[in-house]
């Protein structure tokens, strides 16, 4: 029995000292060369689908880029592949600002659905119906509070969001900023800090409320502001504003949503410039 106990103890000790496959430290997470830091437009909080933009990429977005930015990224990837036979976004991760840092709020009742095209009497009737349910000053107050609160959160919290992601992943990539509508306002404010860190690769904004102010800042080789003809948000005219009221936002809500059927020359130019920033950066990595 004593011999058996000694043998058993030796066996247990040997097993304890034997390396176990897989017990070593986990390898560091693979890091992308670039991150598209995306900020969606006002009230875009429903179509939050995590998305893979390249068959050659291991990364899936968190979905908070939402529909217009998602459509643009798919368009840029497919256009570049058709031209070169290579994936544009293979080494690019898409990271949307989620609702913990940027809620994208602007709670204004919609007068019309997208492309509904109400005439003037129908528009007036819709306005009257909305005002019967809630006074104009209450609507205005809620809209202002939602917009200001959401913008303040995004403006002040985005770099903390980036820092937390970098700490969690151990990655320190270059950043391409892509902002739509209200999201552009949030991301413009992050340019100085990312530039100071040497991580700003480029910035693309479309439907930007600050288009007139930002155009000069983002008009060089690393920046582009895209304002479609008839977009009341970035180029306010009476005709554009009336069209937006009648058909649920008008041109402003349609950025890149129809590129599969009929991309404009401007759509193609924006996608090509975006591709140049990515290929120029990844070729140096």
List keywords for this structure.
alpha/beta; five-stranded parallel sheet; 5 strands; 45% helix; hydrolase activity; Rossmann fold; 285 residues; globular
Write the layout of secondary structure elements.
Blueprint: H1 2-17, E1 34-39, H2 66-84, E2 92-96, H3 120-133, H4 136-169, E3 174-180, H5 182-188, H6 191-196, E4 200-206, H7 211-214, E5 223-226, H8 238-246, H9 265-282
Parallel strand pairs: 1-2, 1-3, 3-4, 4-5
Helix pairs in contact: 2-9, 4-5
Signal peptide: 1-25
GO molecular function, one term: hydrolase activity
Organism: Corynebacterium comes
What is the structure about, briefly put?
Helix content is 45%, strand content 10%.
How is this structure best described in words?
The structure is a single chain. With 285 residues, this protein is of the alpha/beta class. The chain has a domain at 31-106 and 157-230 and 251-282: Rossmann fold (3-Layer(aba) Sandwich). Helix content is 45%, strand content 10%. It is built from 9 helices and 5 strands; from the N terminus they run αβαβααβααβαβαα. The protein has helices at residues 2-17, 66-84, 120-133, 136-169, 182-188, 191-196, 211-214, 238-246, 265-282; strands at residues 34-39, 92-96, 174-180, 200-206, 223-226. The protein has a 5-stranded parallel beta sheet with strand order 2-1-3-4-5, sandwiched between helices. Helix 2 packs across helix 9 (265-282) and helix 4 (136-169) packs across helix 5. The longest helix is centred in the middle third of the chain and has 34 residues, at 136-169. It is globular and about 50 Å long. The chain starts with a helix and ends with a helix. The model is unreliable at 1-27, 118-132 and 134-143 (pLDDT under 50).
